[in-house]
Structure to design on (589 residues):
């Protein structure tokens, strides 16, 4: 089977965006398994990765159902090329050191917790049901990553320096979390999608509280990177997909 | 269970008369199938043997995360990806319980890890083989977890309480891993000719190393007698290996695969599968560090440990700061 293009139905595209975010970040976290700074973190990062991959599976399955072209979760995940992927740039950034992974997780989870909480009110029953499950999971992701941000920020000089550097490097990808486009606007108006702009204040408060406790400095909002949602990614996504899709590409049509 | 490398003889020292009496009482408890607990008196040899065996077992779980972890990012479907990640995570959990059990013998996890990273402690030789295709993930689950279960089920009745209890928990998960691995093999064997060939190739490479997991043949095994008396071990290496072969060969034949052993045949009279001679020189070489991945695995473990040092230091420094702040507040109050 060759590369597929998914129908331009807003709800399908919306579900794909959410699914891609979850899968790509889950994939990144799964790269740590066996290589973390301590055994407890091998297990914790794998836990978060498993939650995210689980969320992605539900969302892909739903996107496939709505599209109605008979595509399942694996076809959507394994047969789209990078320009068809719709995740935000933040989640595809490389793991870097542990500080980068933790700060990335924290910035993302601080956004996703209020996101899912709001999504529980969606008029779309499936999205609301997924949100109910995801909210509980993300509450743990946020707690776990925030605790580490504080430990690293307020730990040693070295950990403080690394955490601050991670924050400074990743900040440029946070603007994209709050963007909306035509695909989303119609769904927001219909009470199906969550308006990300409405989450900014809560996100900002969470970030300030944690950074303050961590003795870290919040970077200034400058120019922000964007493009993931329209399929314009960083160089990193291609390599993720090269790994992720290898077997499906090498043995087209096989059942695994 | 991966205690095959446990092959050094306990050196016996002269024993004082009062110790002989205590040892006799200790042995009587073991004979009566009582569990020995961390605060009970135990002979030094018993303590040392267990510390070595349990920590080697823990190390094997941890090093074992690497060959399978090698396929997490490349798993062929999302279901397989989640299952493999969960499996490797389970192995990390096994490592944690086992280090905790080993710590009850008076040595810290840090010291055990240091023994592994410095190369003084061994881990199962099986993890020094590479995972070259997806079928290796099936073969490991089916054969390696399968062999582990054979070894581990008797350990659930080990005389040392903390080890026995850890094993009960671990065994449940290992049998799930084994079924999952077999199911991967079954799917491949029912798939395309290329997939079936992949499964056959994996069996060809993993079969003999799996048999080696049970350790040296009884006639060459130095430590078994005392471990048997102490009820750390309940069956000999060769007995367990035979059980494994008997259970596994019919499963492989059901898959339509051929075992890489021309001498493999069923003996109607004994009801056992007879198998060819294991290549003990390969076994000894892999144990001695000359396997395909020994150096790579240890480098990966050391790298993770060294690169994580600043994180562990940060966590410690933060915990100390918090404690100091709490105490300051308490004094001020
Ligand atoms: Fe295990
Ligand atoms: Fe296992």
């Amino acid at each position: 089977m060759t590369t597929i293009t998914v129908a331009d139905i807003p709800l399908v595209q919306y579900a794909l965006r959410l699914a891609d975010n979850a899968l790509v970040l889950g994939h990144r976290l799964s790269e740590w398994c066996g290589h973390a700074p301590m055994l407890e973190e091998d297990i914790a990062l794998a836990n978060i990765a498993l939650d995210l991959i689980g969320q992605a599976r539900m969302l892909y399955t739903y996107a496939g159902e709505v599209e109605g072209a008979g595509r399942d979760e694996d076809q959507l995940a394994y047969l789209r090329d990078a320009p068809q992927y719709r995740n935000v740039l933040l989640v595809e950034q490389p793991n870097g050191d542990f500080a980068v992974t933790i700060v990335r997780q924290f910035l993302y989870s601080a956004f996703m917790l209020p996101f899912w909480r709001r999504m529980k009110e969606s008029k779309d029953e499936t999205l609301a049901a997924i949100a109910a499950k995801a909210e509980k999971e993300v509450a743990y992701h946020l707690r776990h990553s925030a605790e580490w941000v504080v430990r690293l920020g307020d730990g040693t000089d070295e950990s403080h320096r690394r955490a601050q550097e991670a924050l400074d490097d990743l900040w440029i990808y946070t603007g994209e979390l709050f963007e909306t486009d035509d695909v989303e606007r119609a769904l927001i108006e219909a009470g199906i999608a969550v308006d990300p702009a409405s989450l900014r204040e809560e996100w900002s408060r969470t970030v300030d509280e944690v950074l303050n406790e961590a003795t870290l400095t919040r970077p200034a909002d400058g120019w922000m990177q964007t493009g993931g949602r329209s399929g314009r990614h960083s160089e990193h996504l291609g390599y993720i997909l090269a790994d992720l899709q290898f077997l499906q590409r090498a043995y087209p049509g096989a059942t695994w | 269970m991966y205690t095959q490398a446990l092959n050094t003889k306990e050196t016996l020292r002269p024993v004082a008369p009062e110790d002989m009496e205590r040892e006799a009482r200790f042995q009587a408890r073991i004979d009566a199938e009582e569990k020995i607990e961390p605060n009970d008196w135990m002979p030094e040899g018993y303590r040392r043997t267990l510390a070595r065996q349990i920590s080697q077992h823990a190390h094997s779980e941890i090093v074992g995360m690497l060959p399978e972890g090698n396929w997490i990012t490349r798993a062929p479907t999302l279901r397989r990806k989640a299952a493999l990640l969960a499996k490797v995570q389970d192995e990390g959990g096994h490592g944690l319980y086992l280090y905790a059990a080993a710590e009850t013998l008076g040595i810290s996890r840090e010291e055990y890890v240091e023994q592994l990273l410095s190369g003084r402690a061994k881990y199962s030789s099986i993890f020094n083989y590479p995972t070259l295709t997806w079928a290796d993930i099936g073969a490991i689950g089916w054969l390696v977890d399968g062999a582990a279960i054979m070894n581990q089920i008797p350990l659930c009745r080990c005389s040392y309480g903390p080890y026995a209890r850890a094993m009960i928990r671990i065994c449940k998960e290992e049998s799930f891993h084994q079924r999952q691995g077999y199911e991967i093999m079954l799917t491949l064997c029912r798939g395309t000719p290329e997939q079936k060939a992949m499964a056959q190739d994996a069996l060809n490479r993993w079969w003999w190393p799996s048999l080696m997991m049970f350790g040296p043949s009884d006639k060459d095994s130095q430590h078994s007698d005392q471990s048997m008396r102490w009820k750390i071990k309940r069956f000999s290496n060769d007995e367990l290996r035979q059980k494994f072969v008997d259970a596994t060969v019919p499963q492989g034949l059901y898959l339509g695969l051929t075992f890489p052993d021309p001498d493999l045949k069923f003996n109607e009279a004994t009801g056992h599968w007879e198998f060819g001679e294991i290549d003990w020189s390969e076994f000894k070489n892999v144990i001695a560090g000359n396997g395909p991945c020994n150096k790579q695995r240890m480098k990966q473990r050391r790298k993770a440990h060294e690169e994580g040092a600043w994180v562990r230091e940060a966590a410690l420094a933060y915990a100390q700061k918090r404690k100091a702040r709490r105490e300051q507040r308490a004094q001020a109050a």
